[in-house]
């Protein structure tokens, strides 16, 4: 079964932004979700400069919490951040 935008949104709802105290979906940080076959693109926009306590690693696109959440949807064989 192919992954859907709803699957992606549900998984992103499990990642909490510590600055807002809300998940990425409830905090309205997810601007767009696009699914094209096996490729998923997610646009996340913060309303503040990215702070080190939110993102793990140097690049927010590779935050392992977000990538792991998408992998746990059970429909992605790999999740990878791209510029």
Structure, described:
The structure is a single chain. With 83 residues, the protein is α+β, with helices and mostly antiparallel strands. It has one domain (5-71). It has helices at 5-12, 64-71, and strands at residues 16-17, 22-23, 30-36, 39-44. The strands form two sheets. The chain has a two-stranded antiparallel ribbon with strand order 1-2. Strand 3 and strand 4 form a beta hairpin. The relative contact order is 0.21. The mean pLDDT is 74.
Briefly say what this structure is.
With 83 residues, this protein is an alpha+beta fold.
Give the arrangement of secondary structure elements.
Elements lengths: L4 H8 L3 E2 L4 E2 L6 E7 L2 E6 L19 H8 L12
Antiparallel strand pairs: 1-2, 3-4
What would you call the quaternary organization? Answer: single chain
Tell me the major beta sheet. 2 strands, antiparallel
SSE arrangement, N to C: HEEEEH
Low-pLDDT segments, ≥5 res: none
Tell the overall outline.
globular
Question: Roughly what is the average pLDDT, rounded to an integer?
Answer: 74
Q: How many helical stretches?
A: 2
The neighbouring-strand order within the major sheet is 1-2
Q: Total domains, how many?
A: 1
User: How far is it from the N-terminal to the C-terminal residue, by CA?
Assistant: 27 Å
């Amino acid at each position: 079964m192919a992954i859907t935008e709803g699957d992606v949104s549900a998984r992103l709802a499990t990642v909490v932004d510590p600055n807002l105290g809300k998940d990425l979906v409830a905090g309205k940080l997810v601007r767009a979700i696009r699914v094209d076959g096996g490729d998923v693109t997610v646009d996340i926009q913060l309303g503040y400069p990215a702070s080190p306590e939110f993102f793990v690693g140097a690049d927010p696109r590779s935050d392992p919490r977000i990538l792991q959440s998408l992998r746990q949807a059970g429909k992605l064989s790999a999740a990878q951040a791209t510029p």
